[in-house]
Every structure is written in structure tokens, then in C-alpha cells.
Amino acid sequence: MQTCANVTTVAFAGLEARPVDVQVQLAGGQPGIVIVGLGDKAITESRERVRAAFASIGLAIPAGRLIVNLAPADLPKEGTHYDLPIAMAMMAAIGALPVDALDNIVAFGELGLDGALAPAPGALPAAMAAHGMNAAFVCPDACGAEAAWAGGEVIAAPSLLALVNHFRGGAALKPPERGDFIAGASVPDLRDVRGQEQGKRALEIAAAGAHNILFVGPPGAGKSMLAQRLPGLMPPLFSEELLEVSMLHSVAGLLQRGQLTRTRPFRAPHHSASMAALVGGGLRAKPGEISLAHQGVLFLDELPEFSQQALDALRQPLETGQVLIARANHHVTYPARILLAAAMNPCRCGGGPGAGMCRRGPRCATEYQARLSGPLLDRIDIQLDVPPVTAADLALPPPIEGTAEAAARVLRARDAQAARGAGLNATLDLDALERVAAPDASGAALLSKAAESLSLSARAYHRTLKVARTIADLDGAEAVKRIHVAEALSLKRQWAGADQAGFAKVS
Question: d(Cα 440, Cα 390) in Å, to the nearest integer?
């Protein structure tokens, strides 16, 4: 019987899986299992799950003190996936497993009281880390299809007993097969939207350049219908994007049976969502809705109804493309490169001034729209008024063009951006913006005049130029011209209390 043994597992810091050495020593003293190494409540409780699992397979824990150390001891550790490595190290320490069975493996999984292995969130990034260490990945059978995407050797077992038999040469386990690619949810077609031609055009521009977009209009105007069709205009996930999105969903426990999809995420949280639910956080610093929408669309309906704290927390991720969750003893970073689509009524009553539905007049719209801070609105490139749909619009036949035709134009525009090598237009830095999006003399004069008349901030000025670059890409134009700048300015809504004739003065 060995008196000590160790096996490797991982601890998560965002999407990064850091190696953790699980060390077990059988020492003299009062019988019991002691776990040290800055583990959370779930890890502390694992000793009872391990004890019950051992009893279920007829394995007795010898008298004495079993000390479990999770090294490095100063790294916070969370989750139930430590059950399996603790159990394997304990079995090696008491002689139930060959000592060399723990060499060059990464163990990951939760234990049931009957000895069954249960899945735990994060199998894909953990398997990727094991592959990077040139180690075999040992996990529950339910995680095998997900872990197989990482490549390398994967040992997936349904139970602790099956794993013991595998390492002792009784019955070898078959390598798991990768999960399937699935089509994802069906995407609604633009042909379903009657009227709202400017809204469809704005949607196409937003998809082509990854520009944040806000629809403002009365109830029933089609704001949500437009936003729900945005993912269908965007190209499928590329390989690198697919891997990053899948790892995020794995950490959040959202991958089902290892199935991946190239469809871009579409997340639509309710306006009652808390700040932690939206940007991430909570006890285990899980990714929030904004990170789960990474490389896809985050749709916030009834935008002013979200809490002020949640909306303010969105500002930095929209600018940097990542979420930083700060804790007293550690920091966690999740990617959050999203296209924000939002919708709102002009006022709390629904219609706003001039729509025939508001009971309080202009003051209602002013107060309601004031819930959105200027810095947040500054980060939304396209802000569009969506008028009510008339009976004549509803009587029209379905439009000739639908999602497929618009998506083809979006793909050509994105190919043009990729050819320039500076990234999507919405993410251009100042140097790249000056290099690829400088307007001609007439366009520069119009933009300069508009910036003065409409009091555009520096951020709004540059974002308007980025939208103009996207419009030029959709038109197949090499240079940004006055007509592109003019259309970009027309997509900047004038808010309650602003000079509604401002744009007319400069155009």
C-alpha cells in the first residue's frame, strides 16, 4: 500500500484551465478525510460523495487520516469536478489503483453516491488543457463526446468501478466519439417583415459591420421581429470563433451531448435580469448573457426597463469586447465581443409624441428616454425610429428579397473587410479608421458640419465614420463618399429634446 499519491486536474479562471495537483497522503491520527487548498463548499462536500462511492463498490477506506491537498494552495478552486481526481488519488494511495495509472492523466468529473460518474461544466476547456499537456483526459461518459473535440486521448467511464477495471486491465473502455454538428434553431426570414424597409436596411448594415443597433418605435411596429432576424444575416461561426463560443458554453454547462453548432448565438434576457445575470458574476463567477452571446447577438427588448446598474455595466464590455469580474482574491475575464441589438418604445405609454397613444405628451418621452445614459447611447452606432406598420403595408405581398439575399451582401461586405486585414469595421482602431475609412472631401465636409450641428462626441464621430465605411462596403465602393456619410448620419436618431431639424440643416 502506498501512503501518498497525486493526480492532475484543472481549475478554471475564465476560459483558462490551470493545472492543479491533487495530492493525497495516508497518515496516522484520528480517522477522517481532510481537504485543504482553498476549495469551495462543493469541494469540501466531495469527501462524503467519495466515501459513499467507495462503499458502493465495496472499497473500504483504511483507518487513519487522509489528507487531500489541492496545489497550488493559493489558487481558488470551485466546482464538483474535483470528485474524480480526489477519488483516484485516494484509491492509488490505499492500493486500489496501480500507482502508474495516475501518470500523465488529467482527471475531471463528479461522483454520485452509487459510484456513477456525473458530468460537470467545463469539460471542453479542461480537455483542451489536457491535450496541451500531452496527457490523457479521464472524464465521465456523459462528457466524452464533448471532450473528444479537443483531440488527444480521452478515457470516458460511466462509473468508478468501470474506471478501476480499465486501469487494472479487466475491461478496457472504448474511446468516445465526437458529438454532432447541429443546425441550431431555425432562423426566421426577413420576408416575414412587411414594410419597414429602412429598418431592414439598418439591420443589413449592422450585420455587415457588427454595429450595435437600437430600434425605437411604438408597440407592434416590428422592432422585435427585425432583431430576431439579425443572426440569419451574419455568416456562420469560423473555426476559431466556434471553439471559443463552445468553450464558453461548456463552462456555463450549456453544451448538450457534445453537440456544436456554427449558428451564431442569440441571447434575449428579460428586462428583470440582474447585473450579475447580464454581465456575469455570482458565487462562482459564471459567464453572463453578454458573454454567452459572444460572436453573436445580445437582444435587449424594452431597453429602458433594465436596471440602471445593469445598463451601466454594459458600457465597458461594449467598448473592450470582454468582461472583467473582480473578486477580493482573484479576477476572471470572459470574452464578450457581441453585436448589441436593442428595442424600446418612445415613451412609457408606448406611442410617444405625435403617435396618438401617449397620455402625457412630450414630457413622458423625455423622462423615459432619459433612463438611457449618454455614454451608453454613444456606444450604439445605429439608432433608428421605427414607424407603425399601416394596413396598406400588411396587405402588400411578401417581398422578393429575404434573409438569403441580404446575407449574401453581408458576406461580400465582410470579405472586403477581411481582405483589408484590419478587422470588422465596428472594431477598427483610430489608425486603421484613418487608413481605410477616410471620406472624400465632400463627405469629410458633411461629417464635420454634422459633428458641429448635432454636437457629436468624439466617439460618436468615429462610430459614424465606421458605419459609413460599412455602407461603402455594401455598395462595393473602395472609398467612403458623401452619400455613405449622409446615410450613416441618417441612422443617428435625434433624442427627445434635441433639435429635430439638426440633420436637415447639415444634409
Answer: 39
